[in-house]
Amino acid sequence: TEYELRGVVNKVCFPTGTALFGDRLYIYYGAADNCIACASVSVKELVKELMSYKK
Which Pfam families match (predicted)? Predict the structure, then answer.
């Protein structure tokens, strides 16, 4: 989104912390030095996706 793209450092998100509640991983991050935001993902789905790239 726009608030994640424009700031002191453009097009960069800085992960700053995580929290795990059940199967849900929450990733807190600074967005382009202007905002704090949170993304979440199912741990089961994340591992499944990562394992699909296993060599």
Answer: Glyco_hydro_130
